[in-house]
């Protein structure tokens, strides 16, 4: 049985797309997923399934719509894929604050044009790198006023995406290994 990480986009932000993590966990268990646990309120779950990551992604998207009335993007990574994200860590030597270091998980890699726009938006000590289906972004001077962060968070990527800070990424890997 494979261990999978489920990442929801845009839940529990202000008053939009509210879902309690205990209710989400219960819904996943009732849907037949095993060893389900959640992390923080931003839509992170770890579970076990015999189904492919792609199928789990589709099923959970439908489950959220049917049970909670939510139309949110769902991305799923296998344990091996998440471990590779952590292992690659292109900014490990410069990203000194895990809250300012983000990984954006993408359904598919962005176009070269989008990547060029992101690189051009990086200001000062900011850095961005695309490796496979992930974008790594180091926001040395903070995320809040970063034009790069705003571009990544918006719909300008042209692909389904959701970001997590480095603390969350490494915690999810810890959880998937339990």
Description:
This protein is of the alpha+beta class. It has two domains: 2-79, SP0830-like domains (Alpha-Beta Plaits); 86-176, Alpha-Beta Plaits. 36% of the residues lie in helices and 25% in strands. The strands form two sheets. Strands 2-3-1-4 form a four-stranded antiparallel β-sheet, sandwiched between helices. α3 crosses α6 (166-176). The chain is globular and about 50 Å long. The mean pLDDT is 94.
Fold blueprint:
Blueprint: E1 2-8, H1 21-30, E2 34-39, E3 44-49, H2 53-68, E4 74-78, H3 79-88, E5 101-106, H4 112-121, E6 127-131, E7 134-138, H5 147-153, E8 161-165, H6 166-176
Quick structural summary:
The protein has 6 helices and 8 strands. It has helices at 21-30, 53-68, 79-88, 112-121, 147-153, 166-176, and strands spanning 2-8, 34-39, 44-49, 74-78, 101-106, 127-131, 134-138, 161-165. The model has no long low-confidence stretch (mean pLDDT 94).
| Shape assignment | globular
Estimate nothing, just give the exact number of structural domains.
2
Radius of gyration: 16 Å
**Spans where pLDDT lies below 50 across 5 or more residues:** none
The residue fraction in helices comes out at: 25-40%
Broad CATH class of the largest domain: Alpha Beta
State the end-to-end CA separation: 14 Å
Compressed to H and E, one letter per element, the order equals EHEEHEHEHEEHEH
The CATH topology of the largest domain comes to Alpha-Beta Plaits
Hey, roughly how much beta strand do the residues contain?
25-35%
How many strands, which pairing sense, and closed or not: the largest β-sheet?
A: 4 strands, antiparallel
User: What is the SS-derived class?
Assistant: alpha+beta
Secondary structure tally, helices? 6
How many extended strands?
A: 8
Q: What's the pLDDT, averaged over the residues?
A: 94
Numbering strands along the chain, what is their spatial order in the largest sheet?
2-3-1-4
CATH architecture of the largest domain: 2-Layer Sandwich
């Amino acid at each position: 049985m494979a261990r999978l990480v489920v990442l929801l986009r845009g839940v529990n932000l202000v008053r939009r797309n509210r879902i309690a993590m205990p209710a989400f966990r219960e819904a996943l268990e009732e849907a037949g997923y095993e060893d389900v646990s959640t992390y923080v309120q931003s839509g992170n779950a770890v579970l076990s399934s015999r189904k492919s990551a792609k199928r789990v992604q589709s099923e959970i998207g439908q489950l959220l719509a049917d049970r909670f009335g939510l139309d949110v993007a769902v991305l799923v990574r296998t344990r091996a894929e998440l471990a590779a994200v952590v292992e690659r860590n292109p900014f490990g030597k410069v990203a000194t604050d895990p809250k300012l270091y983000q990984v954006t998980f993408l359904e598919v890699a962005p176009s070269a044009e989008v990547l060029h726009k992101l690189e051009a938006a990086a200001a000062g000590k900011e850095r961005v790198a695309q490796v496979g289906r992930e974008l790594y972004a180091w926001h040395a001077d903070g995320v809040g006023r970063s034009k790069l962060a705003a571009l990544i968070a918006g719909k300008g990527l042209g692909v389904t995406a959701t970001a997590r800070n480095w603390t969350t990424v490494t915690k999810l890997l810890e959880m998937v290994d339990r």
